[in-house]
Amino acid sequence: MATLIRLLGDFDLAEEALHDAFTAALERWPVDGVPGNPRAWLVSTGRFKAIDVLRRRARFDRAAAALAASIEAAASSAGQEVEVDADEVEDDRLRLIFTCCHPALSRDAQLALTLREVCGLTTEEIGHAFLTDPRTIAQRIVRAKGKIRDARIPYQVPSRTELSDRLDNVLHVIYLVFNEGYSASSGDALTRQDLSGEAIRLGRLLVELLGEPEASGLLALMLLQESRRAARTSEDGELVLLADQDRARWDRALIAEGAGRLEQALASRRIGPYTLQAAIAAAHAHAATAEATDWQAIVALYDVMVRLDASPVMQLNRAAAVSMRDGPAEGLALMDALLAAGDLDDYYLAHSARADMCRRLGRTADARASYARALELTRQGPERRFLERRMAELTTGNRLGKHGFQG
Amino acid sequence: MRYLCVIYDDEQMMAGMSKEQGEAFMGEYFAFTDGIKKSGHYLGGEALEPVATATSVRIRNGKLSTTDGPFAETKEQLGGYYLINARDLNDAIQVAAKIPSARTGTVEIRPIVEFGTPS
């Protein structure tokens, strides 16, 4: 597909052509046998099918006629067989990823386009994953392709000077896809494994094709987070916190692979935010029990992290880690300061974390208020039930407190 | 392919510059323009007089209406443009990024509609 897009210069035409080529394959291969290089056959056939499509359109559209002529000219000069070697195909896939994630497209469009063109998901699947009407997704994709065509966004891997920024964008898109699969933003299913799987596949592809350290860092992060999938929910689909997870259910193979990728990233000495987050995830993965967690190391990693990414969410995560190393009073002080600044007001985890600090300090009323605020902000079933349980436990604790010490 | 790079900057901030800062800024513009002439990107470009000199013209129901000022009050005002020739959007972005006002304001890149040629 990626190769056809390069040769034909147009997403929709490539799609139609590939479809026609597959149809032809289904008719011809049972009769003629599967060709030696099936991919080359498809590309070659696809190209000729595209010429047919364009000729039909050409009766109404001069531009199509010109395009058909140029494709034909290129095809005949290259000879009957298209040489499609593995390297070229990989390069095409890289070009495709970078084009779909071009910053001139809106973030929503980048996500939809990447999932459609690189991962091959249907608009229904994408709509389902992001809880959006598939028609909205389809429109986004049409507009994005229009922009690519009209503004002439080139189908190419960025130059060395641009690569770093453009890669950041691609990594961000991949991580958004992973996160969408890791925790649903609303509804009852806590995780959508297929999306996380797609993100990991994309991450692997990127590392294979580019070998940039932050790409390895992101892949490590996703693998390490994915390793906890089985332990993250109980049999009834209830949320299980990291501290309470059954570590025997962590996927050791994924942890080993993640750790390996992290080593690769660290060896480059070019440490970025994804690599740091992976290091934090690895620190958790290496602790045999929650009690054995090296919080000192984790806080140290967060200290570096907030220098690279001073976002409120990152500071909140650091505050939570500090509370584990230095106690809830320290954590609460940091969190209250963050909440006072106002950026985390709509972030349910901020209120949930604050509630946890208050709970640990025995400040029951404050804890209840924060849990209530958190509940207002999340629609997701398992998260809500977890918060409701915590609130209920507060009441129980309170009743005990009224009667003095429990023997 | 041709693109118009439309330059928006905060006039008040610009007016607040010292004489030295202002001259340095203009110097950067001259250097930029020279640069893109040499690279073959330059097709045209002008600086515009401030927004206070603007006049907006509309004809509604056959009647001519002329008003003082820009078509809309904005935080950043249209200050100039460059018409450039570029290979593709990435090339245009590389050029636009070097326009001095990209650091202080915004440069909008718009592809030119080429009538009469196949897309």
Description:
The complex is a heterodimer of chains A (407) and B (119). Chain A has helices spanning 2-8, 11-32, 38-58, 62-78, 86-100, 107-118, 123-129, 134-150, 160-182, 193-210, 213-226, 229-232, 252-267, 273-286, 295-308, 312-326, 328-341, 348-360, 364-377, 381-402; strands spanning 186-187, 379-380. Chain A is an all-alpha fold and 407 residues long. In chain A, α1 crosses α2 (11-32), α17 packs antiparallel against α18 and α18 packs antiparallel against α19. The relative contact order of chain A is 0.06. The model of chain A is unreliable at 184-191 and 398-407 (pLDDT under 50). Chain B is α+β, with helices and mostly antiparallel strands. Helix content of chain B is 31%, strand content 34%. Chain B contains 4 helices and 6 strands; from the N terminus they run βααββββααβ. In chain B, the strands form 2 sheets. Chain B has a 4-stranded antiparallel β-sheet. In chain B, β3 and β4 (63-68) form a beta hairpin. Classes of the chains: A mainly alpha (407), B alpha+beta (119). Chains A and B meet through α4 of A and α3 of B.
| Biggest interface pair, counts | A-B, 15 and 11 residues
Annotation field: number of helices of chain A: 20
Give Rg of chain B in angstroms: 16 Å
Please describe the biggest sheet of chain A, giving its number of strands, its sense, and whether it closes into a barrel: 2 strands, parallel
Based on CA atoms alone, the radius of gyration of chain A comes out at 26 Å
Strand order of the largest sheet of chain B: 2-5-1-6
Order of helices and strands of chain A: HHHHHHHHHEHHHHHHHHHHEH
Series of H and E elements of chain B: EHHEEEEHHE
Mean pLDDT of chain B: 93
Shape verdict of chain B: flat
The end-to-end span of chain A amounts to: 70 Å
Task: Let me know the number of strands of chain B.
Answer: 6
| Largest pleated sheet of chain B | 4 strands, antiparallel
